[in-house]
């Protein structure tokens, strides 16, 4: 039977060092944070051989009192806190009192420090946790510490270090991030005698970004800012030109502490999703300033993780700040008329509200040989021509009309079904005309009628100026002009975004129609997943799901949203739960983003579909008045602008 032993001090210190000092970059991070806590304005870092041979950090901070020099290397010795209550109001980078003791236990360390009250400083030398000497020395006000032969007495840890160039890259990365968080501090990094980074401590975040990432990055970033009672979020997010295939250029700071947070990363990436090309990650720098009592920084020895008291509020504030900034940036890239001209009632789509009775439209969607219906009380005849490519879009028109949903069976609709002929059906007028039988599209002429229910009556603001249609190129791109600018519109991407926002709005306004499953889907969950479901059951209900508990850790799904068509119920439910885990929280339309985007893509007009001038104009007008018209749900542009100046340069009219 094994007996319990008490580890000696040397062994326990080395084990503790493994938690704090993972590699040379960990040493650099801890030492720089100490310098920042001492109110340094200039910090110089010198490294050799990727930090494995030597790391030296010099600062001009307050320094260490001579009587505290030896104390500083004692485990759990700190000047940052005095009791456990202080942890919940901590505002400094360090507080655990483990860094210097852990570093000295696995290296040869020499520290010199002087405070302003003394004309000389103190020097201490520690070799593998054992003090060699303490003596008076001449030095400037501040602290300098040199760490040599890291992990010399822990060969197993040293074997797992990467090459010198890789370790240098890690050190450079952490210094870059600390420089971003402390733009008022001047940082200088010297690698093997060569200066590789120099910031000037101007106090401006934009300057720090330029010093660290260069001009190409700083010219393609968008600022954002938003505040609540307990937290402020601000920073910069890059446009699609500087997006990358990895998350290396993403930084999150809470009270200027660099952390890794899946919650905040998910909030930013979800806000950017509709503006970003697929399989790319955005560049961003996010700062959260929050009252210390609303976070817990005592989660990990490296202090790289933080717990928030209210994850949902943090997620929503970050999401809204980034999304609004991106939307405004895209709007500003187009010529937008003055507000007085923008606030137009979109009368071509949203007619005046009138009191009326409900009209049922018993139309069999599988047969268009139907009688037309006329309302004798109908007035203000205005014709609207809408060419809906395929039966799916005809279905959408009927869904906007007040009807008894049991009269229709959408499952019988096949959008790819080839129609034998095309007819014009006027629902409120007895006129009829026959068109080319070879055209597979169905043209429907709708007249403004008091019986069509209008869900949106508020004023709509145009996001770009009215366009004059020039024509259609290869039945795919709409060519238009306005003022001295030429516009190209991808008809599929544009119609896809119009439909996407329509579906999204119906979910946000809780106007979701659900379909009852013939056979309810029973799903057995893990205890963790079941807890996530219980926490967010109201969100599922708003999304159009009807779910009930069915025994321990089991749910029974009886209804799903109609707009999702025929989803794989189990996979859809689990995907939503996974999104909730990553996002912390969210709106119903956000967690079903990919499903809504896929539905919009299926229903939209396709490339190579010929459109009339009226159809093109209607599509562009719809696009002008939606919330975010400039990119499709998959991040591709819907509209591209060419200025007259750009065109004349192409033709060498101007230089």
From TrEMBL:
A single GO cellular-component term on record: mismatch repair complex
Annotated MutL C-terminal dimerisation domain ranges read 469-611
Task: State any single GO MF term.
Answer: ATP hydrolysis activity
Residue ranges that the Swiss-Prot or TrEMBL entry lists as coiled coil: none
List the SMART domains.
DNA_mis_repair, MutL_C
Q: Which UniProt keywords apply?
A: DNA damage, DNA repair, Endonuclease, Hydrolase, Nuclease
- Classify the source by domain of life: Bacteria
The record's PROSITE patterns line, in alphabetical order, gives: DNA_MISMATCH_REPAIR_1 (PS00058)
The record's Pfam families line, in alphabetical order, gives: DNA_mis_repair, HATPase_c_3, MutL_C
State the Gene Ontology BP annotations: mismatch repair
Q: Which residues form the DNA mismatch repair protein S5 domain?
A: 209-327
NCBIfam families, alphabetically? mutl
Function text: This protein is involved in the repair of mismatches in DNA. It is required for dam-dependent methyl-directed DNA mismatch repair. May act as a 'molecular matchmaker', a protein that promotes the formation of a stable complex between two or more DNA-binding proteins in an ATP-dependent manner without itself being part of a final effector complex.
Q: Which family does it belong to?
A: Belongs to the DNA mismatch repair MutL/HexB family.
What protein name is recorded for this chain?
A: DNA mismatch repair protein MutL
Its taxonomic placement starts with: Bacteria, Bacillati, Bacillota, Clostridia, Eubacteriales
